[in-house]
Amino acid sequence: MEGVGKTQICLKFIEELMNNSYNFSKILWIDATNAETLANGILIIADEPNAKLHDVEKSVEAVLEWLAQIQ
Predict the structure, then answer these.
(1) What is the pLDDT of residues 42-68, one digit of tens each?
(2) Measured by CB atoms within 10 angstroms of the end CB, which terminus of the chain is less buried, N or C?
(3) Which residue from 38, 35, 34 is spatially nearest to 63, judged by alpha carbons?
């Protein structure tokens, strides 16, 4: 999907978030080029300090469950 504006959409989304005082402490970028890079990107999140603080297991399922419960 080259040249369809994916990066521009993401940047616009972030700009809107910042301009509207949404309270996000972190934005996580994950390479979803293929299933392997997607899984690796999700696993990297388990190394984030807040994930470690909550003892998130380094598995795709555990990371996704943890992310789903964050408010």
Answers:
(1) 999 999 999 999 999 999 999 999 999
(2) C
(3) 38
